[in-house]
Write a sequence for this structure.
């Protein structure tokens, strides 16, 4: 009886003790070991979540939201930013839309693991983001419902991974293009209409232009002579 209680206690408590996690871990989650200290990774929270969300395409063709990427052990390792020099070992998983930290989306979390594992094993971390190149040591799926380590991707799965990554890159480029266009339009509106210029190319701004009265040509009432008269000397 005592042995059974001990096993039950370990089953319930050990997941929450992994790698400094402060909240109970779900049935499946990902452990990603970086070649970066926590002091650096703590500054990249939004960047990492954005890149992870861009590679996960849902059944409706849209990517998961950034708010669905949940970092389980981020807060406690980033309380003293700039001081934690231990290499980061991030625990995270994907949440279901609108769910709290306990409602894990198992399928999306497993998909994230397969994509990340493929990229790391083939030294393609740069496709996830330029800051990740050479900075990820290992990716593991954990939890009692974790998928087995993949032995390889089929051609269809490789194509899906490439499409997912390309979609994220294109979305980022389009977003930057829209931002640049909006900035240029704002500058044009702020500068106002261009000042008129003279022929010499100098601005007329600040000069008062006086309109000359119309020129009147006197018209004689007499009829012009019918012919020329010869003058004799």
């Amino acid at each position: 009886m005592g042995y059974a209680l001990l096993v039950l206690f370990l089953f319930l408590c050990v997941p929450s003790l992994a790698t400094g996690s402060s909240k109970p871990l779900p049935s499946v989650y990902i452990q990603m070991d970086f070649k970066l200290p926590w002091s650096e990774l703590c500054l990249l929270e939004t960047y990492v979540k954005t890149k992870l969300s861009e590679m996960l395409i849902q059944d409706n063709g849209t990517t998961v939201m950034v708010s669905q990427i949940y970092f389980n052990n981020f807060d406690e390792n980033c309380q003293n930013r700039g001081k934690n020099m231990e290499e980061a070992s991030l625990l995270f998983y994907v949440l279901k839309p609108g769910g709290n930290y306990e409602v894990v989306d198992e399928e999306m979390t497993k998909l994230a693991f397969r994509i990340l594992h493929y990229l790391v094993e083939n030294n393609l971390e740069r496709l996830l983001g330029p800051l990740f190149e050479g900075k990820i040591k290992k990716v593991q799926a954990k939890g009692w419902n974790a998928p087995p380590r993949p032995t390889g991707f089929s051609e269809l799965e490789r194509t899906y991974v490439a499409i997912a990554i390309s979609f994220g890159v294109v979305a980022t480029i389009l977003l930057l293009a829209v931002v640049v266009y909006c900035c240029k339009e704002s500058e044009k509106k702020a500068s106002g209409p261009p000042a008129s210029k003279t022929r010499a190319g100098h601005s007329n701004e600040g000069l008062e232009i006086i309109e000359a009265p119309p020129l009147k040509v006197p018209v004689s009432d007499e009829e012009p002579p019918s012919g020329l008269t010869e003058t004799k000397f």
Q: What stands out?
A: The chain has six helices and four strands.
